[in-house]
Design a protein that fits this description.
By secondary structure, the protein is α+β, with helices and mostly antiparallel strands. The chain is built from six helices and ten strands; from the N terminus they run ββββαββαβαβααββα. A hairpin with a 4-residue loop joins strand 1 (11-21) and strand 2.
Length: 236
């Protein structure tokens, strides 16, 4: 194989910021690092890119090794290139954030990595510059969710409007007016009202909804403006 002469080689890694929703809280999945340096310390899920992989393929492989499943929502966040970001060797990391319904994947999570879900605002100290990754991912999630329906990726197949509103409130750390929120979400025609109700959380019961998958896929990249712009830069 021909190589560029007099050029140094860098390590190339991917790291995944995995956001999950359990019906009550927005959470972050972290693991205990299995090797030195910082063995046993809290870390994002990640790994090195193999010779025959793209960064996207490596991130998908890393996610599958933890969840056992393909097809999770995943989006590239940023390339982190600071010279001294890794204390061992010069390592370039491309970060991705992923969204999952915690209840759906609870049984598949690989316990070999000692994974733990932490509330998004109360996660432990992370190795290297991983906390910077998380904070940037939170900002990106708030921005994207204000314009596009990606938060539905965090929900079970059927859900109530109160559950959906609570999810948005967790992401933005604010309270939305119930009436305005419901009208805005229903006006998108992304939701299909079901006949059955959730009667465990209220006497009257709340109707379940599901996502209109055809319209969801068609409109995913449309600017639907779910959340007013003044909330985009609010700290979570």
């Amino acid at each position: 194989m021909r190589r560029y002469s007099q050029q140094k080689r860098f390590l190339f890694a991917v790291d995944c910021i995995i956001f999950g929703y359990d019906g009550q809280e927005l959470k972050l999945l972290v693991i205990q690092r299995g090797f030195e340096p910082f063995k046993g310390k809290w870390s994002l899920v990640g790994g090195f890119v193999l010779d025959n992989e793209s960064a996207e393929d490596a991130a998908a492989r890393v996610l599958k090794s933890l969840t056992g499943l393909d097809g999770l929502y995943m989006e590239q966040l940023h390339a982190f290139t600071n010279v001294d970001r890794d204390s061992v060797e010069r390592t370039i990391s491309v970060a991705y954030f992923a969204l999952i319904d915690i209840q759906k994947y609870k049984q598949q999570i690989n316990e070999d990595f000692h994974p733990v879900w932490f509330p998004i605002n109360v996660y432990p100290e992370l190795i290297f510059d991983h906390a910077k990754f998380v904070e940037l991912a939170k900002e990106k999630l708030r921005y994207k969710a204000a314009l596009h329906p990606l938060l539905f990726e965090l929900l079970p197949p059927k859900f109530t409007m109160p559950e959906l509103q609570n999810l948005y409130q967790c992401v933005y750390n604010i309270d939305f007016d119930k009436g305005n929120f419901n009208r805005k979400l229903l006006s998108t025609n992304l939701l299909v009202k079901l006949k059955d109700k959730d009667k465990l959380n209220s006497k009257k019961g709340a109707f379940y909804y599901k996502v209109n998958s055809k319209k969801y896929n068609a409109d995913f990249n449309s600017f639907l403006n779910f959340v007013p712009t003044q909330y985009l830069n609010k700290k979570v």
